[in-house]
Amino acid sequence: MSREKHSLREIKHARTKIAIMKAMVAAMEKARYDDISIKRICRDAEISEGTFFNYFPEKIDIVHFFIHTLLLKAIWQAQRFVPERHKLLLVEAVMENLAGSINNANIMYQLIAAMMDQRELPKRGGVTPIERELLFPGCAGIEGIRDTGMEEFLTKCLKGAVKNGEIPKNANIDDMVVSLVTILTGTLLATKFADKDNNNIVYHFKRQLAILWNGIGGTARRG
To answer: Per-residue pLDDT tens for 95-114?
Structure first.
């Protein structure tokens, strides 16, 4: 990636959009999503409220954009180490990367709370090449990662797993996607109340995924 390919206007636009997102994420470290006002976000991002709406139609759109960036980085990290033919391992790695991408637990809980209030699927949004370059310097090849939603990513992986013989051909893909999203969000919430010594999200992800794979007769092949 090279910034020489982008105009100063594109770079400025991307920097402002990222600044808005970071202001929102920083606010979610301690505050409830519903309590974070657009006015506060604009103040922290040092922009006017009028400028805000040039980037995000609504506050929830910042959440969607942030989730897209998390998933993009998680997929890039996973694909570096997981062989292409091992789709179930790819799913495991992406979910583990997502769990490890946010150190502040309150941010994760507020993301879940914000998404639960939605009555429809999020608007399709992407992370542009210049936004990727500014967000993930040094991540060679991340510009080639397809921008996708979580459900779409999981569906594609599971269909590949059927083709590769990792899960039975009669497996219900739609049901499995629901199960995986439930594991992703439910495990994050459940570990909030777990004993301190057992509050290891990655450990619980692995356990829950193993139960799911075993239940459908699948196997996350390694090596």
So the answer is: 889 888 887 878 888 888 88
Contacts of 35 (CB under 8 A, 6+ apart): none
Placement of tokens 């569906």 in the chain: 155
Residues in the chain, overall count: 223
Contacts 24+ apart (CB under 8 A), 81-85: 85/164
Burial of 20 (0-12, 13-18, 19+ CB in 10 A): buried
For residue 165, how many other CB atoms are within 10 A of its CB? Answer: 12
pTM over cut 0.85: yes
Q: Please give the Cα distance from 134 to 13 (Å, whole number).
A: 11
Rounded to the nearest 5°, which phi and psi values hold at 27? -65, -35
Q: What is the DSSP letter of 158?
A: H
